[in-house]
Please model this.
Amino acid sequence: MRNQLVYAGGVIFVNYLYMIVFSNKIALTGKNVLKYLGAFTLLAGLFMLSLVTPGLLGPMFVLVNLLLMYQFTRNQLITVLFSLFTYSMYHIIWFVTFYKYYRSLRVPMAYPFLDLDTTHFFLLFFQMLSFHLLIFGLTAYFMRKYEIYMILQHYQTFGKKRYLYLLFFVFLFVISFLLFYLWEKDQFTIILTLLLLACSVSLLFSVLVIFFITKNKLLNDRLVTEITHGLNLEQENDKVQLFKHDYRNILMTLEIFIENDDMEGLKKYYYQYLQRSKEELKREKVYIDLRNIQILPLRGLVENKVQMASEKNIPITVTIPEPVTQLSVPLIDLVRCLGILLDNALEESFQVADPKIEVSIHQGANTLEIVVSNKVQSQKNLVVEKFIGENFSTKGAGRGKGLYSLNKLVDSWGKGYIDLYVEEGYFYGRLMINN
Model:
């Protein structure tokens, strides 16, 4: 019994690690940790009280796992792929450790062949854990690098394919269930062979599904970004050419006023026409600095928000003195964070009589600093600590999730911080990221 309990504890621990990765750390929140521990403690209690037989323990484990993962992610695709991946991995690793050792001994033991002497049991147990930790590390690396969770979360064409995934899972479920009841029968080898074949196919299937969905999404994003970027550059080039043409005309007209010593006419001409040209020069400076953001999706976001500010006649300055070429946090997360800061700045600027937005991005040797500031209506009664509270907003009910989400995202990186403060009539959002 001791070996079975140790083995079960190891599986529950490894299962939680896999769940953290596939849920994008959602399983790490305090409430979800309690749900996870409560569910498996209840299952263990039912087993100890003989209310769940050993043959049903595996299926019950799978059912609890499915329900927990779906509750954490609210996504059928992630839930099924997680279950296929982990369930297959458990059986394959069990086969190459405990069952292989049992076959080498050729002594009578009961399924799942854990009744070994202490030394050999723990050697195999730690070998099993080592395999799982290696797989966990590789999975975490690729999930983080390619932002797979966000891609799967937004994948919209699951549809009828869910039945194919579920068919794989049910097949594994049935074969695993039969193992407990047929291990002493002649058919056990056949059943085990079918299980391993099904596990291998299911594991390959789940990995390929994740791979092709991720690859397709990344290719589409790259194509859209390149097209959008090309169109933006073309539009800005047209604006520059038009401004150059206007600039030559301006010089010619200035010469006429000067030759005729018409200062009154020159002043009138300046305020009616040249003042607008100054704004054009400022916008040109903005677009020149934007070219320093060499990560195209990030540049596209800032360009879009600058365009929105220009359409609403909100003055906006952008300062990016050094090229921004690399990130140490997930790109999607940073786009979300910067998007929240810029959206808040735009929304507040709609309410201000003389709005102004300033954006600065500085790429240092070891840090990336992003500062977004905007004028506020009044800094009275603004308690910054409340900004990061869930559902807090100055804009009415049902709002206020942006800065709360921003704070949670930054906390999840473990390599930066967000500083929110009000100073001299401006609200500042300062994001620091360690490279």
Summary: DSSP finds 13 helices and five strands in the chain.
